[in-house]
Every structure is written in structure tokens, then in C-alpha cells.
Design a protein that fits this description.
Largest sheet: 8 strands, mixed
Order of helices and strands: HHEEHHEHEHEEHEEEEHHEHEHHH
GO biological process, one term: sphingolipid biosynthetic process
GO molecular function, one term: lactosylceramide 1,3-N-acetyl-beta-D-glucosaminyltransferase activity
Organism: Echeneis naucrates (Live sharksucker)
Radius of gyration: 25 Å
Strand content: 5-15%
Shape: globular
Pathway: Protein modification; protein glycosylation
Strand order of the largest sheet: 1-4-3-2-5-10-7-11
EC number: 2.4.1.-
């Protein structure tokens, strides 16, 4: 029998070349594949099969006999809660002109803002954060505050600070501490909010934290919170928002969310809500406040730090289908009818506010046929991968 050895050698060479090419592609793409597939499989397995997180108490709770050291704003234990105030309004939640009803704050609304984002703060004051409108039109006593640090650029700091002082003189709604306003100090900004709320506005029924590029449909939010409070169990142990379950730490050094192994060596974070916008009840504010006093705050991702504090205090996040994650919600009246928050709005806040809260727009989509039409529209919009970071597909059927 005749054997063509030349053909056999060609086949082997082709196999070797193909194998080498595949291995090269795997090596090049491994970081992405590991991040998007392998780490998520590990984290989900860890979250759903173990789901105890006992290591939080032993690794993040400080047992020092002297936790209130004032030697520095960030001591060796990682506390960030003793920064001094540069701008403060301790009486913000007090009565106005002797009106005692104004003392009963329904919602304390904290917006995380950067010092230079004046236009975004002004748009919020003019729309969904307008205290006077919310009181006169919706009957809700809401207090709006902006949480800030110092401008990160030392060369511009004095100029920006002077502008902030002038802005606060006009509006009286800035709360600022002397830490550098940067991504890696977001945990300091979270602690600022909870300490201020606990110390100066403990009577508020609800507390909300949001980014300054988030749109909040206040009529829908207030309606939802009032329904919770009027229920038989009331609003206790409430922490509601867009929940991330079994999220893995990011190990890519180029990512701003990078967390090294020595800081957090485990496969999965405890459950937490997106920091873009979430609501907690009054009792949870007190619990998180006390947790921040004894929790190592070296985790600089504020969403995750919130999850750690809440887990150690026995508070668990609740999913609401119309709290947005990192993405922007679709523009459509069938979405506005249920919308609570939408992320990624800087230039269109005023337009969206007037459109989304106009009752004449959503009234055209009510009744049996209107509900059927809106369900179909929401399915087409929300069940596509493009909107996976806003509202889930399940929201289409509510």
C-alpha cells in the first residue's frame, strides 16, 4: 500500500500551526474571558452555594479598644469618618419660620456631586430635587443636599472653593468635607452622607443616595415609599435599588474598579445595590452609621463598602425593577409610567423631567388596550441586551 508521507507532514504542520494560533488567541483574550466568564462562574458558585460571608466580621470589623483616634483623617485601621466640614448646614432638617410640620422630613435626599458640576446641581434643583415643588405639588417634605469633597487639582482648588462658597450662599444645600473629591474617595463620601443623616436628620423617614447624573421620577418614588410606609409591616430594614448579586471583584489592573487580592481575596462581594441611586429606611441609616464606626474602609468602591456594612448589620438589599443600574432607561411614556431612576443624564434632565412627569402623556396609554400596548413596547425595549444595565426584562411585565 502506497503512503503519501509528504501529505502527512503537511497535515501535521497545519495542525501545529492551527493549535499554535488557537493558543495565541486564548493567551491574548484570556484576561477578558477570565473577567467575563470564569470569574463570574466562580463568584456565582460562591454566592449561591456558600453565601455566608463570615469572613467579613473577622476581616473588616475593627476590634481596637481605641477606635476613635483623631490622629489623622485616615488612620492605620482605614477609618474615613473623621474628616472636618468645610461647608455644613446642621439646621437643614429643622423647622422653617416656626412651622413644626416642616420638621417631619419624609425623605432626606443626598446627591453625590463633584465640585465643578455646578450645571448638573442646578438642573437637579430646578427639576426633581426642587424642594418647594415637591412640598406644594406632591405634599412631600424632602430635603436636598449635595455631598462633596475638595477639588482634586490643587492649582484650581481655591478658585473652585470660592465658587462653591458663593453657590452655597445662594442655595444652602452643599455639604463638604476636607477630603479630595476623587473616585478612590467615594467611600469617604458615603460615610459623610450617613454620618450627616444620623447626626443632623435622624427624623427623616427615608434616606436616598444618588449620583448627580441620575434622573429620579419623584412622583413615582414618593408614591412607592408612601405605599411601603402605609403597609402593615411599615418600612423597616428597607434597602431597595438595583441589586447586584454575586458580583466578582475586578482583577484587571487597568480598570478603575480594580481590587487587588490582598485587599479582598475572595471570589464574590456580598450583595449590594448600584450606588447610582438607592433608598434605605430610617432604621437602616442608624445601622450603617454604627457599622462605619467599626468597619475598615479600605474598600474604595462605595457600593461594595455599603454591601459590607449592611451584611455585617444583617440588612439585605431588595430588588426594585425600575431602579436603574449603570445604564440609561429608554425614552418612552410606557417606561415613564413606572420609572424610578435612570442613570446617565447630564444635559437632558430638564427635558426629561417635563416629559416624564406630564400626566397628559402617560394618560394616553392606560386601560386594557393601553396596558397591552405598553407591555409589548417594554418587551421590545427591555428584553434586548442593550438595556440590560437599566431595567431587567421582568420589568416589562409589571
Amino acid at each position: 500500500m502506497f503512503v503519501n508521507f509528504r501529505r502527512i507532514h503537511k497535515c501535521k504542520c497545519l495542525q501545529l500551526l492551527t493549535t499554535g494560533l488557537v493558543l495565541c488567541m486564548v493567551m491574548v483574550c484570556w484576561e477578558e474571558a477570565d473577567h467575563h466568564v470564569v470569574r463570574h462562574i466562580r463568584s456565582y458558585t460562591y454566592r449561591y452555594l456558600i453565601n455566608r460571608y463570615e469572613f467579613l466580621n473577622s476581616s473588616f470589623i475593627i476590634t481596637s479598644k481605641h477606635p476613635h483616634s483623631k490622629s489623622s483623617s485616615t488612620n492605620v485601621f482605614g477609618w474615613l469618618w473623621d474628616y472636618s466640614y468645610l461647608i455644613n448646614h446642621p439646621q437643614k432638617c429643622g423647622g422653617r419660620d416656626g412651622d413644626k410640620s416642616w420638621d417631619d422630613v419624609f425623605l432626606l435626599l443626598f446627591v453625590k456631586s463633584s465640585p465643578e458640576n455646578f450645571e448638573q446641581r442646578q438642573a437637579i434643583r430646578d427639576t426633581w430635587g426642587n424642594e418647594s415643588f415637591l412640598w406644594s405639588e406632591l405634599g412631600a417634605n424632602v430635603r436636598l443636599l449635595f455631598a462633596l469633597g475638595m477639588h482634586p487639582d490643587v492649582r484650581q482648588r481655591s478658585r473652585v472653593q470660592a465658587a462653591l462658597l458663593q453657590e452655597d450662599k445662594v442655595y444652602g444645600d452643599l455639604i463638604q468635607q476636607n477630603f479630595e473629591d476623587s473616585f478612590h474617595n467615594l467611600t469617604a463620601k458615603l460615610i459623610l452622607q450617613y454620618h450627616w443623616g444620623h447626626n443632623y436628620c435622624p427624623q427623616a423617614h427615608f434616606f436616598m443616595s444618588a449620583d448627580d447624573d441620575v434622573f429620579i421620577h419623584m412622583p413615582n418614588l414618593l408614591k412607592y415609599l408612601r405605599q411601603l410606609e402605609s403597609g402593615q409591616s411599615g418600612a423597616k430594614d428597607l434597602w431597595v435599588g438595583h441589586v447586584y448579586r454575586g458580583a466578582p471583584p475586578v482583577r484587571r489592573m487597568k480598570s478603575k474598579y480594580y481590587i487587588p487580592y490582598d485587599l479582598y481575596p475572595w471570589y464574590s462581594y456580598p450583595d449590594y445595590t448600584a450606588g447610582a441611586g438607592y433608598v434605605v429606611s430610617r432604621d437602616v441609616v442608624a445601622k450603617i452609621y454604627h457599622a462605619t464606626l467599626v468597619t475598615n474602609s479600605s474598600i474604595y468602591i462605595d457600593d461594595v463598602f455599603m454591601g459590607i456594612c449592611a451584611k455585617t448589620m444583617g440588612v439585605y438589599p431588595q430588588e426594585h425593577l425600575y431602579f436603574s443600574g449603570e445604564g440609561k432607561a429608554p425614552y418612552h411614556p410606557c417606561i415613564y409610567e413606572h420609572m424610578i431612576t435612570s442613570h446617565g443624564h447630564a444635559a437632558d434632565v430638564r427635558t426629561l423631567w417635563h416629559t416624564a412627569t406630564d400626566p397628559t402623556i402617560t394618560s394616553n396609554y392606560r386601560g386594557y388596550m393601553g396596558n397591552l400596548y405598553c407591555t409589548a413596547v417594554r418587551v421590545m425595549m427591555l428584553c434586548l441586551p442593550y438595556y440590560q444595565n437599566t431595567y431587567s426584562c421582568m420589568a416589562a411585565f409589571t
